[in-house]
């Protein structure tokens, strides 16, 4: 077979030259200017190291300090990246054995089409029924055996950190969310009586959620007038001009009114309506068995306890004999509660989840087309054989092949960037009661979506395109060649993708060009008369003042993809581990640094993504092992494939072993540790009664305090 027109190995090197140079230039610029722009590069105000010592400084930060400054979510992210670097390093050690075995395989009997050096380093270069596959079998056990051993140690570490987080004196740790309350308990008094029988004198607060849509609508309408009024007052104070606006849709139609007069009158009117509609809400908690006027009682409540032992036992107990009745789960942070979803009927949650799943599946099917197209761009030989016009253009302009090979990962990054925007809308249909639960659902969808679309569709489309002409004449042999020879060769595509993503992503992360541009636009176009105006977001544009939070679902889903590439190609094309070792290490250093200086842990969920990712890793290992077995079988190595199969059973058994207890232990604080935490809290004199009233619906907060006509910001 003639050599390929575009060498996959050369594509990888070109990627390193081009995007590596971009990263080095931007990283150098960042290093030189970082200490001059603290608002951009150190908004947390942490200790700043000398310009060229930020990498040693980030690596020298201990785990305890990183935990305190980045929260458990940030620490978990860094641990996963370091976990990936460790397994990639072991993959590199396996590569020392496997690459010489693969590369020196003689020609003939099934490997004649392999010509480029990168593919020669893969299992695709072995002949059919080659005895050299025995080395692949041994290294498969070494590689995945180390991963299982390391994962077991990581689980032990995570349980200790998770329990430490759950033992902190914070309202969500002392509160339990109770759903599907039966009719006989659907009142503050009824539920309180039941809980008090179980935990006498240990209940601080019971907040049965209310259906107060009319009040919430009035409240939201009133809140919209506050920033308008404040802005108009600032304009009057600084310019002497009175602002005007139209009262119709989007402020584009309707009569023009004086903003100060209009907003003042509207706030006064809405205050009166709130007082009228609230009625008995002020006395709701004193009238324990009554249904407040102007409201209905939902079937969910937040119950806050005075100690962790009681909240832990409430979470771990079965409270009703009917499925889904009086179910308990950990409460989210009070500010994260989606009150509109609290107490949704079970059938609505199930219907929303089903609809969300169906929409995700439909999107996954639709997304196959652009992903397959983008994946095909990296295979120039396949383009020449199967894409007439584009094939002719590449034939006449060889340089176009290099351009398409570099364009493919960039387009793939764009496709991946669009996914969170779409999938989060699907996740919202599932009726999650908190931001944390919504993010967990989004992460799960993103991770699975990327595994199916970005990994499998990309790998198979590239492998199929490489044998496109043979599919028409010899479909059977073409399929076997595509999987046995071309699938290992697709490692170049994934190496290119993760390198482009790492170089560009980490360069933008360090220099923070996107937040800087957004802040510049906001500063030029947004309100800026007062300090409060300058520090407030405007039309979704944030100033440099922040605070800035890390978008973990999208980031971790990309980490999942890198893990999958490492698992599959660590044996099929082991040079891949050298790339993933670099990528994991680079990301670990950069995010260590950014978590110390940029991102705040105000929305720390206590590592909620860790168990999801751990479960995914086990299934990803099984899929990777089955893929290795399939390739060995296609390469006519049945004995070697059969010897690997017990490893699949071992991995499955380990995953089943974790499912029995480990994830449950990670979900809630054990009672024995809750008692110890309560002792420490008591000795420290922490007043847990301050958690009373933490879970009050937003529209009721001002009803329990002052809400006079002059109650303006």
State the total count of DSSP E strands. Answer: 6
User: Proportion of β residues?
Assistant: under 5%
Inertia-based shape: globular
Helix content: 55-70%
Low-confidence stretches: 468-472, 703-713
Radius of gyration from the alpha-carbon trace, in angstroms: 30 Å
| Overall pLDDT score | 83
Structural class: mainly alpha
Strand order of the largest sheet: 2-5-1-6
Largest sheet: 4 strands, antiparallel
Number of discrete helical segments: 25
Amino-to-carboxy terminus distance = 76 Å
Task: Write the SSE topology.
Elements: H1 8-33, H2 38-41, H3 54-60, H4 63-103, H5 117-120, H6 133-166, E1 175-179, H7 188-198, E2 203-211, H8 213-239, E3 244-246, E4 256-258, H9 259-278, E5 296-305, H10 308-316, E6 327-330, H11 346-377, H12 380-386, H13 388-396, H14 399-428, H15 435-466, H16 468-473, H17 475-489, H18 491-511, H19 513-525, H20 531-535, H21 552-572, H22 576-597, H23 609-634, H24 638-667, H25 671-684
Antiparallel strand pairs: 1-5, 1-6, 2-5, 3-4
Helix pairs in contact: 1-18, 3-22, 4-6, 4-21, 4-22, 6-21, 6-23, 6-24, 8-9, 10-25, 11-14, 11-15, 12-13, 12-15, 14-15, 14-18, 15-17, 15-21, 15-23, 17-23, 18-21, 18-22, 21-22, 21-23, 23-24
């Amino acid at each position: 077979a003639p050599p390929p027109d575009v060498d996959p190995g050369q594509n990888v090197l070109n990627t390193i030259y081009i995007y590596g140079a971009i990263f080095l230039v931007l990283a150098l610029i960042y290093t030189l200017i970082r200490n001059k722009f603290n608002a951009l590069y150190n908004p947390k105000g942490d200790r700043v190291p000398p310009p060229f010592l930020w990498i040693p400084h980030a690596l020298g930060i201990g785990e305890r300090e990183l935990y305190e400054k980045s929260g458990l979510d940030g620490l978990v992210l860094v641990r996963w990246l370091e976990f990936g670097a460790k397994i990639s390093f072991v993959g590199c050690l396996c590569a020392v054995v496997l690459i010489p075995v693969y590369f020196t395989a003689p020609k003939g009997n099934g490997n004649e089409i392999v010509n480029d050096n990168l593919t020669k380093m893969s299992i695709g270069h072995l002949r059919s029924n080659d005895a050299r596959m025995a080395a692949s079998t041994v290294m498969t056990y070494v590689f995945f055996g180390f991963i299982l051993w390391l994962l077991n140690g990581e689980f032990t570490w995570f349980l200790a950190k998770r329990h430490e987080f759950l033992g902190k004196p914070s309202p969500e740790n002392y509160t339990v969310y109770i759903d599907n309350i039966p009719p006989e308990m659907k009142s503050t008094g009824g539920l309180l009586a039941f809980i008090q029988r179980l935990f006498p004198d240990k209940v601080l607060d019971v907040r049965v959620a209310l259906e107060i849509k009319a009040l919430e609508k009035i409240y939201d309408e009133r809140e919209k007038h506050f920033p308008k009024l404040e802005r108009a007052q600032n304009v009057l104070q600084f310019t002497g001009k009175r602002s005007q606006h139209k009262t119709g849709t989007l402020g584009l139609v309707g009569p023009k009114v004086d903003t100060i007069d209009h907003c003042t009158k509207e706030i006064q009117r809405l205050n009166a309506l709130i007082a009228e509609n609230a009625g008995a809400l002020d006395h709701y908690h004193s009238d324990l068995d009554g249904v407040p006027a102007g409201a209905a009682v939902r079937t969910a409540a937040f119950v806050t306890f005075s100690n962790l032992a009681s909240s832990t036992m409430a979470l771990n107990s079965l409270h009703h004999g009917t499925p889904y009745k009086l179910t308990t789960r950990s409460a989210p942070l009070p500010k994260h509660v989606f009150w509109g979803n609290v107490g949704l009927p079970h059938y609505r949650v199930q219907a929303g989840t089903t609809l969300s799943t169906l929409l995700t599946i439909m999107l996954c099917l639709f997304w196959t087309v652009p992903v397959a197209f983008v994946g095909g761009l990296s295979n120039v030989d396949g383009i020449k054989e199967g894409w007439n016009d584009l094939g002719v253009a590449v034939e006449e302009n060889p340089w176009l092949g290099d351009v398409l090979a570099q364009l493919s990962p960039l387009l793939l990054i764009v496709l991946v960037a669009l996914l969170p925007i779409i999938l989060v809308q699907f996740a919202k249909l599932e009726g999650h009661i908190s931001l944390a639960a919504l993010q967990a659902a989004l992460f799960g969808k993103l991770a699975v979506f990327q595994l199916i679309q970005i990994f499998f569709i990309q790998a198979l489309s590239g492998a199929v395109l490489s044998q496109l002409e043979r599919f028409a004449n010899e479909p059977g042999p073409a399929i076997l060649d595509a999987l046995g020879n071309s699938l290992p060769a697709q490692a170049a595509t994934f190496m290119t993708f993760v390198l482009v993503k790492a170089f560009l992503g980490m360069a933008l992360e360090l220099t923070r060009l996107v937040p800087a541009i957004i802040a510049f636009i906001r500063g030029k176009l947004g309100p800026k008369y007062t300090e409060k105006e300058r520090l407030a977001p405007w039309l979704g544009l944030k100033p440099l003042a922040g605070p800035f939070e890390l978008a973990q679902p999208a980031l971790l889903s990309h980490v999942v993809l890198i893990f999958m590439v490492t698992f599959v190609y660590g044996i099929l094309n082991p040079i891949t581990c050298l790339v993933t070792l670099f990528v994991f290490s680079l990301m670990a250093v950069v995010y260590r640094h950014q978590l110390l200086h940029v991102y705040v842990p105000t929305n720390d969920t206590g590592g909620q993504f860790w168990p999801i990712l751990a479960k995914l890793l086990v299934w990803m290992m099984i899929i990777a092992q089955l893929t290795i077995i399939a390739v060995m079988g296609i390469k006519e190595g049945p004995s070697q494939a059969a010897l690997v199969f017990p490893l699949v059973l071992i991995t499955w058994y380990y995953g089943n072993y974790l499912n029995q207890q480990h994830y449950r232990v990670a979900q809630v604080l054990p009672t024995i540790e809750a008692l110890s935490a309560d002792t420490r809290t008591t000795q420290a004199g922490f007043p847990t009664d301050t958690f009373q009233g933490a879970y009050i619906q937003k529209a009721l907060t001002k009803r329990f305090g002052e809400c006079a006509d002059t109650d303006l910001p």
